[in-house]
Amino acid sequence: MANLLVTGTQWGDEGKGKIIDLLTPSFDVVARYQGGHNAGHTVYVNGERIILHLIPSGIFHRGVLCIIGNGVVIDPRAFLDEIQGLEKSGVEIDDNIVISKNAHLILPYHSQREIIDEERKGAKKIGTTCRGIGPSYEDKMARRGIRVGDLLDLCILKEKIKENVEEKKAYFAYYDKPLPDAEKIYKEYAFYASKIKKYIKDVSLLLDEKMKEGKSILFEGAQGTLLDIDHGTYPYVTSSNSTAGGVCTGLGVPPKKIDTVLGVTKAYTTRVGGGPFPTEIFDERGEFLLERGNEYGSTTGRPRRCGWFDAVGVSYSCRLNGIDKIALTKPDVLDDFDEIQVCVGYKYKGKLLPSFATESWILDKVVPQYKKMRGWRQPIRKIVDFTSVPQAFKDYLKLIEDTIQARIVLVSTGVERKDIILNETELKDIVDLDKFKKEMT
Ligand code: GDP
Ligand code: IMO
Ligand code: MG
What we know:
alpha/beta; 10-stranded mixed sheet; 4-stranded mixed sheet; about 35% helix; binds guanosine-5'-diphosphate; binds 6-O-phosphoryl inosine monophosphate; binds magnesium ion
């Protein structure tokens, strides 16, 4: 198959984990390019719910290589815990995971600092996962970060930890917090080094070799386009590029190697943490989406804010990523609504905006323009082909396709692998249909 990039088109938690797991059998490699263990990707395997944070969602398929790129930030403790958890669930981990030597490490002082920063911001806090993601990327950009490859030389590791702790001295003193103990951190990370070194490789080179051998790659995005550090709702974003460009920088792969981009899109909208959310619902319909959709963060357990489908935001994501095909998830959560709304435009100061706005203060004030749709009022989970879906549901899908200018290649109607309605004509260009269908059974 041609190489495929799969990325979220909203504020994360679109159901990427489930979709990537299903697509994986058509690929030889699944490669994650950004983020860290702030992500939570849910996959149901033989009835068991497994949440992945750092490890790519292709891991449940033997023979598929899972790669963590240089654009990812890695907390070694979280990585090792995740491996242990997967092994307990019967997943074999041996030479099927690789970590880039150029990926940056998350150290204990990163999350400690993030907690202080978030508290200091009070009502203006970002609502981060406090996993140390942002501060690790900060050190990377400031050119003092510690990379996974540094674990391979303990003298270098020791020196870098010492220098970094020294650099943070003034910060911790200012906030009257104890300075992290460099020696203690070193001992802990030297232990992780002994466990992790077997996974460390030159990922850009490895991917190049794989592609030369004719292997196909699925590039896995974490978070979502509207959380992208450059193109999202700054500053209420994560600290990496979740959009398509992140593949090139986060894995060391040339742009022309991304053949197709598939967006994963939820049939309504959610967001966890602070920041603008034009279509947020504040009444009992929002609470209904929260409960019926089980919209509780896969990483932090926080309730997700819920709202109507925002075609302005998703169109913007499609433009940024070059998406013309999407996988639509969770419309089953809307089964009981008499009326469903879709935001088809934003008005700001009385005028229609030409596009999505990334200025938080503008997005806070836009007035969503809704198109009201009749609900289908019946369970769609059991439906297996498009010919049997109710007309009102067809109308909903058509409105989404028309407003975002992308085709729906599949509709996910429940948490399990088998809960899928396929658009075979569209999907066959992206995956091996037989392999895909086998996975659903
Ligand atoms: P990700 O971060 O994009 O991988 O998404 P999460 O795993 O954080 O959140 C998606 C949630 O929705 C998980 O609990 C999934 O099990 C669940 N889910 C995925 N697809 C569907 C679907 O089509 N219908 C329903 N009801 N739940 C789904
Ligand atoms: P997946 O991959 C939803 C949000 C946080 C916060 C902001 C910044 O599961 O879709 P961070 O800890 O990254 O600095 O927090 O980004 N956030 C996510 N929201 N899904 C995610 O990942 C997220 N990863 C980060 O809630 O608002
Ligand atoms: Mg998630």
